[in-house]
Amino acid sequence: MSTSDTPFESLKAELMRIQSNCLYTAQGYFEAAKSAEKWGRLMVFIPACVTAISSLLVAVKVGPEVFFSGLGAVSGAVAATAAFLGSPKMAADHLASARAYTALKHRADTEISLLTDASDLTVLEVRIRELGADYVRITSTDTPMTNKFYEKARQRIEQGAAE
What we know:
Blueprint: H1 7-59, H2 65-85, H3 87-114, H4 121-141, H5 147-158
Helix pairs in contact: 1-2, 1-3, 1-4, 1-5, 3-4
């Protein structure tokens, strides 16, 4: 805090920091959820299609049966493994985190919009501490995501594509 900052300005700056953190983190988790859902679908759909095509080729006796039987078996195993390991669960986890951060951002937005120079600083400090504690609670239960999604979120926000 610089010597020119008033307690009001410091509290407002903290609210804006929480708001900004929530915006960027929520957008990052939305990006991660989209990617996890897409890859989860592809890791089931493509091997399942390969299995179906291989089975069809074996059934109509086109090409080497052993090769297509083996390809179908491996593709089926990949699809089953992808479905079992829970790509859809990861997407759902990321989406839940994104929604939690978005809700927290809206609460910070409300606090910022209600700020006046006459705001009770003690009450404001309590609210900011509650928002900060909620941010830590959400963070502590998140499924981690890679940095590339934070970067993608930053770019989208700076372009005005996400807010």
